[in-house]
Design brief:
alpha+beta, two-stranded antiparallel sheet, 15 helices, 15 strands, 16% strand, globular
């Protein structure tokens, strides 16, 4: 039986200031995030055999929930909290989209100029695509560039230069702009554009212009920089360690590093607490504490729907974003759908765990969930169920049975 932890108001204040490592099971949080909510979180995690999870919820600039459930490692006894380090994988993509929006505001790029404007030597295997692919195509996955390059996501030699060279020979998955097809190398090209237009690597730009501006002091653009600051992942006490299923048991998995070429697609390592200012910025039209980081126009352009026709990995995302929503659309770094009377924008991420960030601008609401479960689509469904539970709770709606709604029969 998984052990979950709630945070009383005293522990919540401690979490925001320092750490909740000393806070055990406690009285329910005042308001809607009560014992019923925590019981449902535990039930969802148990159903999908998730060892641990963290969650943060911000609405109207106020923190509604920040804390953790279960354990940071399979077989361990440390309870995750708001400061637990978590790799978020593809939740990085809307952050990269935000960075591009800032460059649009700066006049350094446009959404629709051909990539060759910024990378003259850019080549795809399709001559039409080579000449016309733009940032809008790359960020919305309609370029139909290869899903992944030979060697997989964790190959250590994949620099930006190698990525550009190999893309020239990688087969296109379908005719140019025919549909959405999830492309990790496409986001790598975006990172190279940021580098060429600013003189800073994608990692440096993110840490200065995004994480630094939002005071996300425990966020790293990639895990190697985390190692430089905190040490080897295996030596970091408060880290959500990847869990795998083996012979019917949940055991510790491996920590693997993502190379430079894929960093704009999935390298960010952060905490539930650090995600709060980012989510509030996104939910508040680009403003945080009165300071504008990105124009509302650029943010809306990135988040608005571009297409709904999809194939490949995107189809799996459609399956697990919202089982009660009949239509999922995709923008630049964002999926969107109607739920609870609002439009929800989100992006999931999986690999060294499962994560999701969801934004409901009409309610100025942001939800972040991350788990160390790595059972691919099933653990993604689990964090999606927790996300939907958190959204409906924050909006004051009755709790749904998300386990049943995500079941094979209902899908």
């Amino acid at each position: 039986m998984l052990r979950s932890i709630g945070l009383d108001y005293r522990c919540l204040l401690v979490t925001l200031a320092l750490s909740v490592s000393g806070c055990g099971p406690s009285e329910p949080i005042p308001g809607t995030f009560d014992a019923d909510f925590e019981e449902e979180v535990s039930r969802i995690m148990s159903h999908w055999s998730a060892p641990g999870a963290v969650m943060s919820i911000v609405k109207d600039g106020e923190v509604l929930f920040l804390g953790g459930f279960g354990v940071t490692r399979p077989g361990g006894d440390q309870i995750p909290n708001g400061q637990t380090i978590v790799p978020v994988q593809s939740v990085t993509k809307p952050m990269t989209s935000l960075a591009v929006g800032m460059l649009v505001d700066d006049g350094l790029v446009t959404w629709d100029e051909p990539i060759r404007t910024y990378i003259p030597e850019f080549e795809a295997s399709d001559p039409l695509a080579s000449a016309q692919i733009n940032l809008r195509d790359l960020l919305s996955h309609r370029s139909v560039l290869a899903a992944i390059l030979p060697g997989g996501i964790f190959r250590s030699d994949l620099t930006n230069e190698v990525l550009l060279r190999e893309l020239a020979d990688a087969p296109m998955e379908s005719p140019f702009r025919d549909r959405l097809f999830y492309s990790q190398p496409g986001l790598g090209v975006v990172g190279e554009i940021i580098k060429r237009q600013t003189g800073s690597s994608w990692s440096d730009f993110m840490e200065e212009r995004v994480f630094g501006a939002l005071e996300m002091t425990s966020t790293f653009s990639n895990a190697r920089r985390m190692v430089e600051s905190l040490g080897d992942p295996s030596d970091i006490d408060n880290l959500l360690w990847p869990a795998v299923q083996q012979d019917g048991q949940v055991v510790e998995g491996r920590w693997r590093f993502i190379p430079e070429g894929y960093c704009p697609a999935g390298c960010v390592v952060t905490t539930a607490e650090d995600m709060i200012p980012l989510m509030d910025l996104l939910a508040n039209g680009g403003i945080r504490f009165g300071d504008r980081l990105v124009s509302e126009e650029s943010l809306q352009e990135a988040m608005k729907p571009h297409t709904v026709r999809s194939s490949g990995l995107i189809e799996l995302y459609v399956d697990m974003m919202s089982p009660t929503s009949p239509l999922i659309a995709f923008g630049m770094g964002w999926g969107s759908y109607e739920a609870f009377g609002h439009t929800v924008f989100e992006h999931p991420g999986s690999g060294r765990g499962s994560s999701v960030m969801a934004i409901v601008p009409e309610a100025r609401l942001g939800v972040f969930v991350s788990s160390n479960a790595t059972w691919t689509i099933e653990s993604d469904r689990m964090v999606s169920a927790l996300k939907l539970l958190a959204i409906e709770t924050a909006l004051g709606q009755p709790l749904s049975d998300w386990i049943s709604l995500f079941s094979t029969e209902s899908r």
